[in-house]
Amino acid sequence: FLQELPSCQSARRRRGGTQERRPALLGTAGSRGAAARALQQERAEPAACPAREQPLSMAEKRILRDSQQADTEHLSRWKKWRRTSSKSWKKALSEVKGLSSYLMLWQHDIHSIEGKFGTGIQSYFSFLRFLVLLNFIIFILMFSFVTLPFIISKYGIFNSTIAYVSPKNIEDNCTIYEPSGNKGLVYFYTYLKDLFSGTGFLEVTSLFYGYYTIDAVWISIVRYNLPLAYLLATFAYLALSFLWIIKRSVKGFMQNLVHDADPFQSYCNKVFAGWDFCITDPNAAWLKHRSLQYELQTDLQEEKLKQKRAERTMKEKLRIYSLRIFINIIVLAILSGCFYSIFTVTVFSQNSNDTGNANSLVNLVVQYLPSMVITLANFIGPLIFSFLIRFEDYTPAFEIRLTLMRCVFVRLANIGVLLFSLWSQISNCGTDKCKPCGYNYKLYPCWESDVGQEMYKLMIFDFLVILAVPLFVDFPRKLLVTHCSCKLIQWFGQQEFGISDNVLEIIYGQTICWIGTFFSPLLPAIATIKYFIIFYVKKIILIHTCKPAARPIRASGSNFFFLVVLLIGLILAFVPLGVSIARIPSSKACGPFRNFNTSWEVVPDTILEFPTVVQQILFGMASEAFAVPFFMIICIIMFYFIALARAHKRVVEQLREQLVLESRDKMFLIRKITEAQR
């Protein structure tokens, strides 16, 4: 009878055998006894687990709990104490975890947004919270290891002193640096100009690189190497950002992989296991209900689009593909225009600053011209891309990804063009200008502070634009749509919350922060305050001026892709920082690296102070003899994990097939029982 089961027949067909074979369980008495012992062992093993974790009914769980309590009476005192301690520890951890959820930043606000607008928009605010915490930790890192030792040494706290090292083999012209600090009677508008441009009184504060001019700090008998700490703190915040993003990306990738692998399984999880039965508050229950509703609505919308795409005729496919090619040509033209405009404006601004101008207002406009053009391109580009993407007929999730990738080339490449233009003025200059110091010391006596000021202006301008758009665009549009019956205004309608545009705004600002932190150590503090304010601004815009999205977005794929784009921004930040640290000569008139040719030279200089054995080990690790085997071992490990992942994937496919066969067996048995009863 068991050989007639669909699973047994499928196994015989897979083996290619023609003979009927009985299962091993029905063979000899020894095999039946072994199977029985295995079944008893399988039933005995879960008994050691808590009853709540067992896949049993409530009545069976109560029986299992009573039996476990009865078994504890026969245990020794040591085992009883261990079991009691384990339960108490788990209970304490559970209570601490529950209390920590109340201390999490914006927890209630994000849950409320999830219930009203879906998990897609909720993922944006969760992403914004992640950046607030990341920037705050970066600020604590830079302040603790760079700014705080300088402040302690400056005011003589803890019996600290400052050690200066006189420059060697450097001409006197290279060491002249006179910051444009405000002296004498200064008008109030000058302070405002300095506040927005990073010049004047801000240039001589701890905000910028040029302020840190000491070589070492003696705290009691301990010598603190500030240049080394400055460089290691830079590497530390980059490594911290990279590892934290990877950790969150892996979690999002696993959720995305589970969802994409079996949509029907995801649907069953939402319908049969999506509700949280611990919810007692009616408001929380309503929010959870709305969240599940948006998730199901997103699933149905995507399935509808997939069905529509499968039913397209050849004529419709040709029309869609031709339209997409034409739109991509337009996008490439827009990108090329933005890049050319940024490059031209930056070169013009640098040349104008070099020649000088008597009109201070004209100088101010010329100084801000690159930032203005970059901000304008960042504002107009995403609007055009969001308008064009509607005609390409993609799924909502893919629309976000494609729009983000297009906008990434606009925003992040603009930063690259600006930095390339600055470096061309710093390094690629005439022989007479660069020969004494290795860089254009007449125009840039402290070029690191100048780059930090450009990053500071970009961040401030970006923040002002984010605040100005709701005030001058979103709220007037809401009022016109609500109180004006004009057909043109009603056709524009109420604004939807564009996830791709908003995510790219904060990724663009975060990339500026990563690049600028080396040149402006306190820039993460400004970024933390900026994102903290943006959270409430975006929340007000979402609730009062935006309508729910016509095509809802799923959070699982969006979270993962947001982090991938953020990782692209971080990798882009590695390039200018690596060039600045290793290639461009450091300023000889300011900063902690003024006694080194480049910032990186502080590392081998510090290694030379170590014992000879340690020097040989470190230099050996940096040689090709160590790098090549290390790279080969990494490749072997990577190939091993790839093969392991493929093996796990095959096992998962077999288990899914086994579940399908078991369902067929049940249907077969039910049909046989029904026939027997008849």
Automatic annotation (TrEMBL):
Residue span, TMC domain: 446-556
InterPro entries reported in the protein's UniProt record: TMC, TMC_dom
Positions with biased composition (Polar residues): 1-10
Major localisation: membrane
Biased composition (Low complexity): 24-39
Gene Ontology molecular functions: mechanosensitive monoatomic ion channel activity
Taxonomy, superkingdom: Eukaryota
Its membrane topology: Multi-pass membrane protein
Residue stretches spanning the membrane: 130-152, 228-246, 325-348, 368-391, 403-423, 560-579, 626-645
Example of a GO cellular component annotation carried by this entry: plasma membrane
Compartments reported by the entry: Membrane
Pfam family, one: TMC
Location of the region described as Disordered in the Swiss-Prot/TrEMBL record: 1-51
Keywords: Membrane, Transmembrane, Transmembrane helix
Protein family: Belongs to the TMC family.
Protein name: Transmembrane channel-like protein
Organism this protein belongs to: Struthidea cinerea
